[in-house]
Amino acid sequence: MSLIKFYNIVITLVIVVVAAVLARGLWLHYMNDPWTRDARVRAKVINIAPDVSGYVEYLAVTDNQRVKKGDLLFRIDQDRYKIALSRAMHEVEMRKIDMALRKDEARRRQDAGHLVVSREDTNQANSAYKVSLAQYQQALDQLHSAKLDLERTEVRAPADGYITNLNLHAGDYARTAQPALALIDEHSFWIYGYFEETKIHMVKPGEKADITFMNGTQMTGHVNSIARGIYDAENPSASNLIANVQATFDWVRLARRIPVHITIDKFPENQVLSMGMTCTVVLDAPHQRAWWDIF
Predict the structure, then answer these.
(1) Does residue 160 sit in the same domain as residue 283?
(2) Residue 19, SS3?
(3) Is 289 or 10 the better-scoring residue by pLDDT?
(4) What whole-number distance in Å separates Cα of residue 229 and Cα of residue 245?
(5) Do both 73 and 178 map to the same domain?
(6) Which residues contact 180 (CB under 8 A, 6 or more apart)?
């Protein structure tokens, strides 16, 4: 055998061994290390619902617009609420005058003494004054409520964020407690990584997480918490409240995926995050495998 042929055989064997070692390492990483490609961006979605009902008189935002906390989103027709406020103000004036009259009457009867006015009339005058005082306080409460209703006709952003999927238009009728539009809180983005149950024992709160999006953008974060329950569609309750477990004849059992909440530590500049984006999460676990474990 020539020396060249010997070298060729040796080089081929080395390449085969290196390829086998690399393939073994990749296989162990894929099967055992805590990582997942099934991760999604999540955020707080605030359902904006008016506190009063009425026609939308003015819409101040557009779809996907960024807003700051306190910015006007839309305004409900105020005419009816202005009338209610005026009525409440008149009611306060009436109750205030009536209270003053009852108070003067009660004081006069009290000053007259029991020889001129009976004790019963004096007590009745005092009771009438207390009733008028309560009615006056009630009118003040109604006035405050009318002012609040008028103020609430202007619906404002409760947080910094983005308007999304806007389906509200000027002229629509907005109802109390009925969501009218959605606002995504821009300070609330996080990652939900769905890890296989066979790897969840390696996931620890506080561990560093490397996040890679499909466009190649990378971020860092850390494990915040692990979900303690997922829906079991195969375990519905029977009529007698006992679990109705169906017989399973599958040869292959797929590992269930457990949600893991991952907090993003730092946002890269000019990075656009949208709720629902997918990414890959690799945890920097402290129990990394040594190189000889590959063999």
Answers:
(1) no
(2) helix
(3) 10
(4) 18
(5) yes
(6) 48, 49, 50, 56, 74, 155, 168, 172, 174
289: how many CB neighbours lie within 10 A of its CB? 13
Contact 224, 209 (CB under 8 A): no
Least confident residue range of 30-44, 56-70, 225-239: 225-239
Least trusted range by pLDDT, from 54-68, 167-181, 197-211: 197-211
**Given this model, what pLDDT does residue 294 score?**
44
Residue 64's CATH number: 2.40.50.100
Checking if the pLDDT of 289 tops 60, the result is: no
pLDDT of residue 234: 67
One domain, residues 56 and 15: no
Helix segments in the chain, DSSP class H: 3-32, 79-112, 119-152
Angle at 271 between CA 67 and CA 41, to 5 degrees: 80
208 and 146 in one domain?
no
pLDDT tens digit sequence for 19-56: 666 665 555 555 567 889 999 999 999 999 999 999 99
- CATH code assigned at 214: 2.40.30.170
**Is 227:192 a contact under the CB 8 Å cutoff?**
no
Query: Does 180 lie in the same domain as 51?
Result: yes
- Residue 271 lies in domain: 34-43+189-294
Instruction: Summarize the chain as % helix, strand, coil (round to 5).
Output: 35, 25, 40
Residue 146, judged by CB atoms within 10 A of its CB (0-12, 13-18, 19+), counts as: buried
- Predicted TM-score of the model (pTM): 0.77
